[in-house]
Amino acid sequence: MKAIGYQQNGPIDAPQALIAFDAETPELRERDLLVEVRGIAVNPVDVKVRAGFPAEGGTRIIGYDAAGIVRQIGSAVGNFRVGDAVFYAGDITRPGTNAELHAVDERIVGKKPESLGFAEAAGLPLTSITAWELLFDSMQLREGDGRGDTLLVIGGAGGVGSILIQLARKLTGLTVVATASRPETVEWVRKMGADHVINHRESLTDQLKKLELEPRYVAALTGTAGHFSSILELIKPRGHMALIDDPQALDIMPGKSKALTFSWEFMFARPMYQTSDMEKQHELLNRVSDMVDNGTLISTVSNNLGKLSVESLTRAHKLQESGCVIGKNVLEGF
Q1: Nearest-angstrom CA–CA distance, 103 and 63
Q2: Which of 219, 220, 191, 196 lies closest to 302 in space, CA to CA?
Q3: CA distances (Å), origin 72, targets 36, 82, 84, 159, 262
């Protein structure tokens, strides 16, 4: 099968940072689906892995979002049949989706939204799982909770922020304040449904005080280290902060007097550790699919970069590294 990967980790501008090659068709485990990949998306994790993790002597295939058609099923598969259209984010410990065919555990796969094409559907799984788990696992909210409270989303125009805003608005009673700094990102965040938009390049404290809002929940999606002192000042006592980025160090001791809760969200944890509840990702992706098809949620894709190739995937990685991506960039399959 055709695939794109890397042999030497490093910058995207390096010669042969990404290469096309012929790979073996994946062998299936008993709960696996073999998916013909029709669309993929690029996420920050793609560039982090490509830049920072050795290929360990071979050619490593990355890619952690896909939509496609089931072509074969493992011996113990119960949720899907050959011919089903599916979407999913995969497992960071296994070969990725930048290939013609991909093996994935059915317990982390959902039915593709019927109202979206394959590439557009591929823009949703990783960010939807991350946002859903952040709200309902990390922050332990229940649907309908949050009336009278505020959620601050730092980095509202990115992929996770785009779907997090929508889920919080549609499934909880929270007032959603999201950050954005450019006219186009402010417009995008408003489109996603934020109640208020503030500028993360200016004082968060001053802007929230002007709105007379004190967040009980903070989703730190980017720039956590730079905003951490403001978060500690702003957040309500007994509040909850969840983060997804990679600050080198955070001094959480000042949060003790407010009895704050801090938590990480990492959507690969369930498949990575084969947790007993990993099928929750299958269930939540099906729920997201239904919400897209009934119009409750809207697509977060801002750009389709065309057919998957070394050139188009390199462009997608460069855009992701620029820090200026709005929503999600996607590509069609080979």
Answers
A1: 12
A2: 191
A3: 9, 6, 10, 30, 42
Residue written as token pair 């960039």: 329
- Listed in sequence order, the residues at least 6 apart from 324 whose beta carbon sits closer than 8 Å to its beta carbon are none
Q: Which tokens belong to 163?
A: 């779907």
Residue pLDDT, tens place only, 242-301 = 999 999 999 999 999 999 999 999 999 999 999 999 999 999 999 999 999 999 999 999
The DSSP secondary structure of 159-227, one letter per residue, reads HHHHHHHHHHHHHS--EEEEE--SHHHHHHHHHHT-SEEE-TTS-HHHHHHHHT---SEEEE-S-HHHH
One-letter amino acid at 74 equals G
Secondary structure letter of residue 26 according to DSSP? P
Predicted TM-score (pTM) of this structure = 0.97
**Whole-number Å distance between alpha carbons of 178 and 182:** 13
Give the whole-angstrom CA distance, residue 14 versus residue 182.
30
Q: What is the DSSP letter of 29?
A: P
**What is 214-268 written as a DSSP string?**
--SEEEE-S-HHHHHHHHHHHSPTT-EEEE-S--S----GGGTTTT-EEEE--TT
Q: Yes or no: say if 303 and 330 are a contact pair by the CB < 8 Å rule.
A: yes
Q: What is the largest CA-CA distance in the chain?
A: 59
Contact call for residues 288 and 118 (beta carbons, < 8 A): no
Q: Which domains does the chain have, with CATH numbers?
A: 2-124+273-332 (3.90.180.10), 127-264 (3.40.50.720)
